[in-house]
# Entry
Amino acid sequence: MGWQAVEGSFRDPSGFVYSRDGTLYRQINTSFRQRFEAFLASGLYDELVRDGLLVPHEQVGLEFSATNDACAVIRPQRVAFISYPYEWSFGQLQDAASLTLEIQERALARGFTLRDSSAYNVQFQGGRPLLIDTLSLEPLEEGKAWVAYKQFCEQFLLPLTLMSTRDVRCSTLLRSYLDGIPLDLGSRLLPRRTWLSPSSLLHIHLHALAQSRYAGSAVTSAAKGRTMSRKGLLTLVKNLGGAVRRLSWRPAGTEWADYTTDNNYSETAARSKRNLVVTHLRESRPGIVWDLGANTGEYSRAAREAAGLVVSFDVDPAAVERNYRRVRAEGETGILPLLLDLTNPSPAQGWAGRERLSVEERGPAEAVLALALIHHLAIGHNLPLERVASYLVRLGKLLIIEFVPKSDPQVARLLLSRPDIFPGYTKEGFEKAFSRHFSIRAAAQIEDSERWLYCMSASPQAAT
Amino acid sequence: MYIDPTTGSLVLQFLAAGVLSVLAMASRVREAVKNFFKHLIPRRGRWAGKP
# Structure
């Protein structure tokens, strides 16, 4: 066969994504030929690529096609790390929503429309959201409503409204509802005051009621021949844009968002740790580094000095949001903040458990940072050190990990309200557990602290 | 079309577009009326400082 389908690319009969010899291709099927050619000829593709809204591609010959019904094959620019909406912070989801609406506005101006508005069609590249589904745009059929309106409300507007008005942790619902949070559920979960907000009332609450009222009715009888003008569509899209922009969330008050400014590092210790991290990374010059428990990304930025991209994971939505805001404010292109609970990482899920990849399947990273993390896993979550080591070895080839001893105030804090049932949590116990999966290349005490920084390589037998 | 827009969503969309268009038109009329009166009644001090 010579090609492997990308597991999440099967819903749209117009084409699909696959890889061949490690290169990513998208096949356009004959049924979509006219619409695809019209899109390219309209100038919309050039405009969107020029302004960094759509992934650029190169057209290649049909010899690269996967099946017989191909009319064209494109080679899209590869996104360095695929992330999913349930891993994004509030600001990332909001920016992805705004991108989708901006593309729809520009498309309407040229007589085109987005035929889907899946949040999974957006990825973050160079610090900014980017539409990666080139086949999402097609010529507008005058008089037709926007087919992706419900999808937009369920995948963007409703989750953002829940996060903004109820609780930012509502974004985890996106992990259960891959097609978007059902409107009826969202309508029930939202605070009553949202009935007084015109946009929430219209696009969510009344939308949910209409869903239930017209369930089982045919479009022809319910719509009674109504048509939608292009101006009407534009008004709708602009209103959705305003609704998205007006939603806000202040990243404060959570445990970790203030950690960087409220920890027990001296300036000397912080500098020493930073230098050690950068020195170890410079020796291997990794393309992609995963920073686990990155908080607001202080050491991700240090790692960036020696790496092409640092994926900056943290469990705290406020920390990830702050990290992302800094990426946007400073125009940083090599940091990708993402939400991840390492004790319950994003699983493989969707159809056949293959549609969305687990974190592990998106690796292994060339290097993994686990700074000020081990005590949270081992003591905060009762994870045996050996189990931590056996998972981390699956995530990356090189591990830079900090050992925080029991004498450290941060560990003492974790043991404040519980008995110490961790006799094995010692420097020696740590080294023994990790030596089963890694070979320790270097270990150095962080200056002006009792903490140690280790650089380890995955043992060949551990990786198998 | 490969996703299901659902009947309820389409009906709501027609309603939403209609309501929003009327509101947008009302807003434009209100702005036009405001601007008309703004130009009709010169602001105090408009001529101050002119020779």
